[in-house]
Amino acid sequence: MIRVQSVAAGSIGAELGLLPGTELAAVNGRPLEDFLDWEFLTADEHFVLAARLPDGEEIEYDIERPEGLPMGVTLESPRIRRCANHCDFCFVDGNPAGLRAPLYIRDDDYRLSFRYGNFATLTNLKAWDVDRILEYRLSPLYVSVHATDPTVRRWLLRNPEAPDIVRQLGWFGERGIAFHTQVVLVPGVNDGVQLERTLDDLYGLGPAVLSVSVVPVALTEFSKRHLVREPTREECRAALATVDRAATRALAQRGGPWCYGADDLYLQAGEPLPPAVWYGDFEQRENGVGSVRFLQTRIADATDRLPDLGGKRIGVVTGQAMGPLMPQVLDRLAAATGARFELVVVDNTLFGASVTTAGLLPAVAIERALAGRGSLDFALLPAEAVNDDLRFVDDVAVDELAERVPMPVRLSYDFVDALSECGVRSAACGVEGSTPHSPFHTPHHGVGKGAGQR
Ligand code: SF4
Fold first, then answer.
1. How many angstroms separate the alpha carbon of residue 86 from the centre of ligand 1?
2. Rounded to two decimals, what is the model's pTM?
3. Quick count: other Cβ atoms within 10 Å of Cβ 149?
4. pLDDT in tens, 263-281
5. DSSP-assigned states of every residue in 136-175
6. Residues with CB under 6 A from ligand 1
7. Backbone phi and psi for residue 344, each to the nearest 5 degrees, phi listed first
8. Pairing between strand 378-382 and 313-319?
9. Whose CA is nearest to atom 4 of ligand 1?
10. I want to staple 81 with a disulfide (CB 3.0 to 4.6 A). Which of 109, 201, 253, 450 is the partner?
């Protein structure tokens, strides 16, 4: 059974009389377990829905649904599938006290992997899950591989029950399911020959593995640093050399690099990022792979549409990771808009200096950094730093922060989103929401540049 959270006005759901709190029990006699059942079983033009209204009335609706017309029903969040692993580098262990409650949940959920691109390990799949992946063709899925040697992978996941990932991916691949994969690089464990073996094994799975990214492990000051450490510059360089060999082979044989280093791997290695064209469709952008080049591409594509903001002073809040790269992005923006962009690089006072991604900046640190910047016309805040309820990792709402800083603020993923609207509505931008992302997004997926660590 799943429950309705809200119903869009004028939608099919509203016409039926579905209300917030309505329990959706079954479609065509098949019980509904979660949003996947709802979406797939109601995709037909004709179906019978069994529901119980908030007042207890049980109704069966015989529904004719014109093709493409949405039901207009938003469901309550599903129960998150918990993780069966105990990685030494798990971000949940690296969380300080006082964060939003969901950030302490170790989720490992293939449903969120399909829907939002969250990485899952597939170590907690039941037979029923496997059946659903095949029946609903949940592809591509995003999978944390880390190592294909079963012993090494089990050691990394601290899970002696973890199945052989090559056999698992191969089995799904034969049945039409494809995967984007990642390796979180833990020095001394899955680098060197283990990384080479992992990339070879994944490449050997053919079209089932669409891509693999190599992401350096990232830790907070609360992580289990006695058990795991970050890679050195030399170790990052060595990993990049392995990535390059795999990418060169894939380019020659399959026409695309297939294997990517995360932006952080290049930064930590002190090596330049590849050009935008290297990343193709930027399929692992949310994982911090090509995200800098994606940003530049977005801005270049939107140059003609950006408004004239001549004379405006605009603050750009970011974390230490993007600080050194941001000028090459902002120069282009300044040329296109006439505005003066002032970089506000914020230290992460909550997780410690080793956490440099903008997506994990707490409101308290941003507030402090903006306190003396009253001459700014407005400031752009990283939209990835808030959840769907517009709350930062330290549970402060954006509008609360807005009241505490001496200029209007605006959330932005790529500048183009926020600045384009400023042109339409003048530059007196207030706080606005962000585009939706996984409501279950937890920072242990995003300790690096993007949202990928698991
Ligand atoms: S890092 Fe991910 S897979 Fe590992 S223990 Fe944490 S939630 Fe589980």
1. 6
2. 0.86
3. 19
4. 999 999 999 999 999 999 9
5. TT--SEEEE-S-SSHHHHHHHHT-TT---HHHHHHHHHHT
6. 83, 85-87, 90, 92, 106, 108, 121, 444, 454
7. -120, 95
8. parallel
9. 87
10. 109
